[in-house]
User: What shape does this take?
Amino acid sequence: MRLPSFPTLIRTFYTISNATTSRLPASQKALAPFTRGTVLKSMPTIPFLGSLFTSSAKDMTEYPVKKSDDEWRAVLNKGIYISSSFPLNISTINQPTHSGAEQFRILREKGTEAPFTGAYDKHSPSAGTYACAACAAPLYRATHKFKSGCGWPAYFDSIPGAVVRHTDRTFGMARTEIVCGNCGGHLGHVFKGEGYPTPTDERHCVNSISLTFRDDEGVGEGR
Assistant: This one.
């Protein structure tokens, strides 16, 4: 019997983890986060799969940009956030259309987009800057990006000081979460020692929805 490919397995378990939410009646959707967590925790033989799609909660108020949940919802519902500290040239922004609710779920509630669906997964510019979709702080240069085949945008390094790391112990596992150093928005996780032929042997596995891209390399890096 031929086993399914790894990408197919990932899509399948991601779908299972979200299926309960979509099938709930409206009166019960307030319980969706609990229900989804219950579904994931009911997979004791493969606990690592559930941990791929969420991160442990953490207070994100110690960053330079501080906003309440309601303020972040308002910002994300309006689209890209323009900061006076990190000015952007609007004509150079390549920002896919996302719902504010989905961006809030990932950036502020530490969710994860489905693999192989993000706008920047196969995005391969020769120059430019990837910035935080919430606060516009520059995070990665285009030259940091590489093809990993993991289903999410991958970077071997970040702009110095732009990304902050935290230990994420969701599901009893120790992973390294990465967040925007300016606003604390969730980006994804970083993995080391996977053997990729990059200068750092690190893979910053980042949600496309957490990013914006502009092709004006070097503009607004706050230096």
